[in-house]
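Dear V.,

Thank you for sending over the compound details. I've combined the ligand you provided, zinc ion, with the protein sequence from our construct and run the structure prediction for the complex. I'm sharing the raw inputs here so there's no ambiguity about protonation or stereochemistry in the SMILES, which I know was a concern on your side last time.
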Amino acid sequence: MIHGLTQAAESLLTFAAELARRHPRRVTAVLAALMLGGTGATFAVANLAPDAADLPVHTVVESVQTLPLQEQIDALQTRTLRLYRSDVTRSTDTADNLLKRLGVFDPQAAAFLRTDMQVQQTLLGRVGRNVTVEVDAHQALVGLTARWSPDDDGMFKRLSVLKTADGFQSKLETLPLAASSRLAGGVIASSLFAATDEARIPDSIAIQLAEIFSGDIDFHRALRRGDHFSVVYETLEGDGEPLRAGRVLSAEFVNAGKAYQAMWFQEPAGTATAATHSLTKGGYYTLAGESLHRAYLASPLEFSRVTSGFAMRFHPILQTWRAHTGVDYGATTGTPVRVVGDGVVEFAGVQNGYGNVIMVRHNNSDTTVYAHLSRINVQRGAHVTQGQHIGAVGATGWATGPHLHFEFRINGVFRDPLTIVRQSETVPVAAAARPLFNKASAEVRAQLTAAATMLSGNTQ
Ligand SMILES: [Zn+2]
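Below is the predicted structure of the protein with zinc ion bound, written out as C-alpha cells.
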C-alpha cells in the first residue's frame, strides 16, 4: 500500500491530514468517503417498510467509481471554503455562546440571532435541537439550519438562517418526516448504553433492545465485555437527519457467545389465534416463530440509564436480613417499579423489614413481592396488568440505601425469577400466518447476517 502511493495520493493524504488537524470533527466523513472512493468499495443498502408484517427487503449493491485523485483534491480545496459544524442546543444557550461553540466568529450574525423573533422562539434556550452551521474560511456564518420534530404527527420543523445580499434572514417551515430504517450495531465494552452511544443509537432503541431480549439475557447483571449486537430499527428523518426513532424491527444479540435473534411480526387479521391477542398488536418473535412475550417480565425495573449496571454498593442492615431470599436491584429513589405479570394485589402497606411493600398474587401458586418502596400506587384487591407501575423504589424498612427488594415465590417458596421467566410457556405464530412469517424471517435472517458481516468489517 505504502509503495503504491502515487504523488497525487500522497498530496491528497497530506491535505487530508492537514484538514483533520484543523477540523477533526468534520473530516471523518470526508476521509471515509475518500477511502471508499479509492478502493471502489460496494455499499449495501437495506430498506424496510414501516409495517414489519410485509417486510420487503431491497438490497442495493452499487459499485463506486473512483475519481481521479487530482479532481478529488480540487474538490476538497473548494470545499474547505465552506465548513459545516453541528451541535445540539442547550437550555443555557445565548446567541453568542451557541455560535462560539459552533466555531462561528461573526458579530453581525450574533446580532441577528439575538434579535430575530423566530430564532428567539424556537432555538435559543431550547434543549436538544440539532443545529448545523455553514461557515466560510474566516469563520463567518453563511447559513444555519436547525431541525426538530416536536410532536408525534409525522412532521418536523426546519429553521433556516441565511446570509443574503440584504443581510441575514430567517425562515421557519413545517415539513413531512420521511420513514426509513437504520441498521446499526456495536460491541459491549463497558455497558449497553456506552455501546449504543458509540453507534449513535437512540436511548429508546437501546431500551427496546434490552426489553426484547430480557427473557434470555439479564441486562442488569450478565452483560460481558465483547458481547455484540446488530439492530434494524425504524427512523423518521427530516432532510435525511434522524429526528425520531420508532420501533425495533429486528435484532441479534450475542451474549457470552450465544446468539439470540428477534423480529417484529404482526399476524394478518384473521390468522391470529385467540391465545396470541395479536390481531392488532403484533409482537416480537424468535426467527423460529416463538413469541418472546412471556407470562412474566424478567425485571420489575424497566431498563434505563439509571437502572443499567447500577451495582449494589451496600448491604442490608442485619445479617439475618442479608440472608434473605430475594433479588436486590439498586436504583435511585423514585424509579418506577412495575409488576412483572397480571394479577391481584394481595397486600399493599408497611411490614417490618420490608418497609412499604406490595405483594401480588398471579395465580394459585405464584406471588411476587416488591419491598422498600418510597411510594405505593395500588390498593389491596386491585387488578394489575403486566408492566403497570405499582410503586417506586425507596429505602423504607431495613435498607441502608435505595433499592428494590424483589421476590418470586411459588407456593410460598422463593425461586430465581429469571428461571421462572425462562420456563414460562411461549406462544408460537398461528399456523395460518406461518407462510408469511417464514418468508419474513428468512429475509430478517439474511439481513442480520449481512449486518454482522458489515459490522465486523468495520471494527477491523
Ligand atoms: Zn433484598
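A first observation: The longest strand covers residues 241-255.

Warm regards,
I. M.
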